[in-house]
């Protein structure tokens, strides 16, 4: 999905506004587990998402049990929300930065979040769509670790997988708009940042910055119970090795 993000960023001339050196993009803005971890762990719904996503990377054991009764999935619109300025996750995301850097980092995050709507449009998804944000987070984190691109024809079924996942059993569909907005912003900003940093490092390689971004991508996936070494993407989306 990095290629898709590049099209959005170049069209908005945002890449030109990023730091001149790729290592600055990583070293200035990348957090080593701080605010992203804190913001994610503060969510009351991530633990359920983590459990279900973790199962996605492992084959389910075959058990001679009766199938669970089928329940109707939540309406698709239940995975969107109405955003409000007071519910934004950005203050929590920048809280771990030095005080003198917070306004600068918050501005970068707002730029990235503002361009995420272009990804939703590119893939024909609704505005403020949590499954699309989650798919970007997963795909770009995987790309950062492995260097293997998640192509658009693989990203579309991944979004559908995330939609089914979030509709079934996570409780997210019934969460408040404020909870959905915070989670959406964390996933969208992290995904956009990871993709942007990866693009910069392709153009201006730096081994130290690349190692940090790779470690960050692995940590992003681990927060959701996913192991990139056991993941692959195909025409059906996310698959286990």
Automatic annotation (TrEMBL):
Record's signal peptide: 1-22
Keywords, comma-separated and alphabetical: Signal
Chain positions covered by the region annotation Disordered: 55-74
Pro residues: bias regions: 61-72
Protein name: Uncharacterized protein
Top-level taxonomic group: Bacteria
Pfam families in UniProt: DUF6683
């Amino acid at each position: 999905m990095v290629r898709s993000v590049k099209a959005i960023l170049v069209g908005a001339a945002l890449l030109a506004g990023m730091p001149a050196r790729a290592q600055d993009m990583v070293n200035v803005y990348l957090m080593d587990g701080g605010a992203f971890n804190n913001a994610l762990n503060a969510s009351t719904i991530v633990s359920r998402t983590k459990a279900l996503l973790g199962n996605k990377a492992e084959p389910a054991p075959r058990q001679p049990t009766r199938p669970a009764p089928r329940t109707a999935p939540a309406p698709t619109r239940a995975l969107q929300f109405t955003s409000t300025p007071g519910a934004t996750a950005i203050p929590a995301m920048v809280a771990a930065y030095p005080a003198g850097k917070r306004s600068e980092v918050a501005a970068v995050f707002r730029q990235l979040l503002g361009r995420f709507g272009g990804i939703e449009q590119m893939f024909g998804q609704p505005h403020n769509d949590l499954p699309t944000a989650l798919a970007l987070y997963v795909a770009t984190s995987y790309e950062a670790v492995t260097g293997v691109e998640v192509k658009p024809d693989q990203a579309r079924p991944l979004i559908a997988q995330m939609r089914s996942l979030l509709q079934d059993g996570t409780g997210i569909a019934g969460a408040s708009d404020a909870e959905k907005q915070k989670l959406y912003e964390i996933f969208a900003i992290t995904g956009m940042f990871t993709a942007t940093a990866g693009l910069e490092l392709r153009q201006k390689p730096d081994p130290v910055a690349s190692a940090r971004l790779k470690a960050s991508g692995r940590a992003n996936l681990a927060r959701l119970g996913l192991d990139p070494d056991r993941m692959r993407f195909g025409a059906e989306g996310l698959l286990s090795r």
